[in-house]
Amino acid sequence: MMDWVVFCSCLVLLTGVIINIVKSVKSNKELSNEHKSIKEDQKDLSTDNEKVKDLIRSENKDTQQNIEKAQKSLENNDNQIYSLLNNVDKTLIKEIERSKYKYENLTDEQRSIKNYVESINNLMKEVERLQTLSVEQQKQILELQSELNQAQHFNNNFTQHM
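The chain above was modelled as a monomer; its predicted structure follows.
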């Protein structure tokens, strides 16, 4: 009887070991499949990563080219502005020299007349300024008279009620 017990125990033990081996083989197959799937996903991610890097490089290159174009355009604009300013300066210098030359070539009588005309122009500007000031002061006088009339009216009403 003992032999049967030992035999059955060995059989149960051997069956347990075989079951564990089968489970382990299945688990290894599942892990292997999962590992393959992860490797494929990693390859896909790596490919996507490279595509993104290439896209960023391309965008960066385009942006750099646009910046360079804009910089060249600004430099051209600066050069054009500088050229225009130089032309204006030259024109003003010529005009000043011509004006000085004209004044120097006038006779004393012509210079005197020119000075009178400038004085009259300055007086006319002063007259305009004074007229504007006069109009403003007239407005202030009218406002003050209006306030005075209101105050007198209020004062008369106040004294009548007392």
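The CA atoms of residues 50 and 134 lie 81 Å apart.
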